[in-house]
Structures are given as structure tokens and as C-alpha cells.
Amino acid sequence: MRARALAPTLALVAAGCLASKQDVALLQSEMQSVRDATVRSDSARRLQVDQVLAQVMRSNDSVRALSARLAKLQADVANDHYEMGRQILQIQELSGQSQRRLQELRASLEERSQAAAQPVPGDTARGAAAAGPGPGQLFQSSLDQLRRGSIGVARSGFEELLKSYPNSEDAPEAMIYIAETYAAERNQVAADSVYGLVVQRYPKSPKAATALYKRALVLKSAGQNAAARAALEQVVREFPRSDEASLAREQLRTLAK
After folding, report:
1. Which of 13, 71, 117, 190 has an alpha carbon within 20 to 30 A of 155's alpha carbon?
2. Which pTM does this prediction carry?
3. What is the DSSP string of 176-191?
4. Residue 12 above 70 pLDDT?
């Protein structure tokens, strides 16, 4: 009788236990699903991170390659500028040698002309014509004195040339050498002034570009960079096809640093 009365209660307890096991199984299944989803999410995130890192590494490699190419290009450009400047200087030296040879020939011709015009007794006009050296002789003798280190004597000879033959084709270069004699004596003010006179008196002469460029170097050596830059820019502007213009552009790049 008692067992029969407890039967419903035992059935309810059994049902309760069965329901709890099902709930636990369901909970465990849901937790496993969550863990699986988390693992998949983590895997996807790691894949994304790996892809981003790979892209960053490729970008860094590209930047390094571009930097290397840029450095090589800059080195090539610097070498090209140096080589161009060196070639210009070589051309200038060759041109200078030719110019000196022409000056020597002119001086020789003047000397022979004077020898042929030696005065004869009673011929005063012919004697007057042969009285003094010509511009070529004055230039050459003054240049010889300068090469020997006789700066003052050389300057006097060049000044005599300018006084006697102001329109001679040697006059602009004679004035440049006068400026160089002052520069050799460290009289930068006088050198700068004479270089300026070359440009002022002989603006159409090729030597005007030379004088202006040399004046810029004098100003630069004196620390007057603004005035030096203005002179270099004038060389480029007024004598764009001259050798001095190419050298002036190089100097302007130096001043800009």
C-alpha cells in the first residue's frame, strides 16, 4: 500500500533527473558550439593579421628598394654634375691655351711690324709709329711678369695697355688680370671693384661672364653669400650659354645647401 502511494513521487523525481541531464547535454552542446565559433574567429583573425603583416613587409621591401634606387640616382646625378664640371674646366683650359697662343702670335707680329718700321734718318713719322709696344706685346710681357710672380710690375703693364689701347681685344682680359693681381694680394675690395668694371665697360665681351663669375667667387670667399648668389644668377641670366653659366649653376646649388 505504501509502495503504491510512493510511485507517483518516484516518477516525478525520475522525470526531474531526466530533464536535468538533457539540459546539461544541451548546455554542453551550446558551449562546444561557442568554442568552435571562437576557434574559427581566432583563426580568421590570425589569417587577417598574417595577411596585414605580409602586406606591411612587402611595402617595407618596396620602400627600401625605392630608397636604394633614389640613392643611386642621386649619386649618378652628382657624378654627372662633377664630370660635366670637370669637362668644362678642361675645355676652358684648352681654350685658354689657344687664346694664349693667339696672344703670343699677336705680340710676335707686333714686334716684327715694329722691327720693319724702324726709323730711318729724317723719317720722324715712321719713328713715331714705332715708338712704343703694341697691345699684344704689352699683354704678353705683363702676363709673363705675372707668371714670374712680379705682381706689381704685371699690374702696371696691364694698366698701361688699358690706358694706351682701351678698345683692344685684349683689354677685357687685361682688366681681369688686374683684378687677379689684387686678389693675389688679398685686396678683395679692389678685386671685386675691377671685376665689376669689366662687366660695366665690356658687357658684350665673353670676358664679362668670366669677370662676373670670378667676382661671385670673390664674394663667396668673403662670406657675402647673398651678393655672390646675385652675381651667379646674373651670369646664368645674361650669359646662359657660356661655360661660366654652367659653373655658376653648380655654385648656386652649393650656396643653396
Report:
1. 117
2. 0.52
3. HHHHHHHHHTT-HHHH
4. no
